[in-house]
């Protein structure tokens, strides 16, 4: 789907034309089983002792809820915009129809203040995903509008508890109020980091879990810039899924800082762990941080021991994703780097930061499909695509593709685990090849998930016919 420039301008001017593209979802607005999500201003105590104003959530006083849906079952979110800015909601990692993907001007018009949009889809893959706006992305995400999205397997693999941790920074001053959400200096480099690191909007969160029980811990890195580095110093367990998808062979749990698992902006990890037997005993969830390791959360054992054993867990069933046909793959190369344009404004899909610092193939994307920019690459439906992603900048870039799930098949710097993912981390100087079958038609946003990079040129889209 694409929109003419005139339609787009009408939209930005505030008057919503009635494009036929909206017809389908509007008709579903009466669905009684819809999950209401009211995007609204919020306030909460993020720094102990201070109430932070100017947050954005889908609740007035806390983080957006964990959304739970079932694999293969239809889900409807009734998103209402209760703010004065535009918004649009994206379901990161879900392979759903293009018109439900939530990308302004590429798949829908932005949702104006007071307006609603119904997202209806059936998640095909189980696992840990997340949701966030794709319009005014920097402002709304930095102010808190990011939530964990869980697609449950048809059967519980045997856990006693399921705990989601949403890792996110906030840029707050000493008085607990927002300072500049980002800086041009940060945007032109590695991104602007927050001053307060939180899990579920809480510093050093405490969560109860049954003593001696088996816990599925899901961690989502939803910050606009920060790459967390996860380790659990006194935990027993293993890593069972990355970026939503089960690992064929579970990975050792990182327990030492040196072995910490990088979780770049947009990435997720599922950990299976066994709680200690003694009531009150703690499992620490840590991340590396500039000033030294930070405790993000504590899991506290409660009750008398369930005496479970990790070996009792069923392996997670694999999601049914088409295997790339490497013998007939078509290669497209991309290079990510700086842009010479600096001060030129860039629309970054929807809502500008006013700068252009980054580029794909040496061209910054002007920022929306309405300006007539074509796709970065086009694949025929069913074709196997290999994207060679080359980072020629000194900064790390978590590169994300919407609507399609790919395997990382090679890197010039490391052995790759070839798990399915939607967000590939490119370190300084790294070239990574990813492969997928182009089996989901539409225009799919393709961008760095450091939001300041995305919004200043490091973005575009890929078309599947
Ligand atoms: Cu999670 Cu286009 O992003
Ligand atoms: Cu996405
Ligand atoms: Cu980047």
From TrEMBL:
| Annotated Gene3D superfamilies | Cupredoxins - blue copper proteins (2.60.40.420)
Q: What InterPro entries does UniProt report for this protein, alphabetically?
A: Cu-oxidase-like_N, Cu-oxidase_C, Cu-oxidase_fam, Cu_oxidase_Cu_BS, Cupredoxin, TAT_signal
Please name the source species. Pacificibacter marinus
For this protein, the record's PROSITE patterns field holds: MULTICOPPER_OXIDASE2, TAT
Report the residue ranges that make up the Plastocyanin-like domain in this protein. 63-155, 372-463
- Designated name of the protein: Blue copper oxidase CueO
Gene expressing this chain: cueO
Q: Where does it sit, as one GO cellular component term?
A: outer membrane-bounded periplasmic space
Recorded hits in SUPFAM superfamilies, A to Z, give: Cupredoxins
Q: Which PANTHER family match?
A: MULTI-COPPER OXIDASE, MULTICOPPER OXIDASE LPR1
Q: Which residues form the signal peptide?
A: 1-29
> What's an example of a GO molecular-function annotation for this chain?
copper ion binding
| Keywords, sorted A to Z | Metal-binding, Oxidoreductase, Signal
